[in-house]
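ok so i was messing around last nite and threw this chain in just to see what happens. nothing serious, just curious
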Amino acid sequence: MGEFDLIRRYFQRPVRRAVLGVGDDCALLAPAAGMQLAISSDMLVQGRHFFADVNPRLLGHKALAVNLSDLAASGARPLAFTLALSLPQADEAWISEFSQGLLALADAHECELIGGDTTGGPLNICITVFGEVPAGQALLRSGARAGDEIWVSGQLGDARLALEALLGKITLPPELLAQTRQRLEAPTPRVALGLALRGLASSALDVSDGLLGDLGHILELSGIGATVDSRLTTPLIAASANPLWATGRFGLDLQQQCTLAGGDDYELCFTAPAQRHAEVLAAGLASGTAVSCIGRIDAEPGLRLLGTDGQAMQPLWQSFDHFGGN
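result:
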């Protein structure tokens, strides 16, 4: 199967929102009046971002999900995306599963594939996604102000717990491994919440490399500090409902490491004025997404973390770094 046969068979579809899609040298997008384009790219590399034996359908889902998560963090509605795909071989069964996972999520968010590239080489997936947001309403990392509350969507930590098990560092019961691995390999982009936070959140980003490290980007660009209370983060761990945490089989340090520095969560971390607390809860309810307040923004620079005793603590772990790991 040649390159263009592969594209036509698995990736070429009629466009509904773009002016021109797959087939020409460039795709054409026409933003609606008063809208700005929001654009983001993410790359997934085998051995760095996913295991070689990952289910290709889940990999297709995740490849787009991590990009949609960036749009969510900007309060942008998805429009379209391009796909650059490097494949060791044209394995039709693998490509079919990959494309089905990719396009099912695309259809769910009305985000159409409008172009890209394919080539032979190590397995590597790069997606560029396009969204639209009303001019001046995009959520940025630079808008947090002293007195704002810090919020997180959904749950954190399960993806890292699965990774620890898959790397052989801990052993999980099969049912818990399946639960946490689903969170690692098929994250849910919080697009609806991002839209609901427009005009409400003062800053936002998605948690991809670990909560504390990613929150640090907001603090740096906003020129402020923060206090995070680890006692408020326990409800963020989906696996915390599993009795294994309570038995002490996995220590508190691992639980906090997974929650605060785990990565691959693709939840939203955002800030909002304290007086709008009830509105944030309503936005979460309206979007079908749990939201939790975990701290506050301070005028004093730096990130302060309170331990289970309410006292300041110094974490021994760091968030993920693409050139250093964690």
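not much to say yet. The first helix runs from residue 3 to 10.
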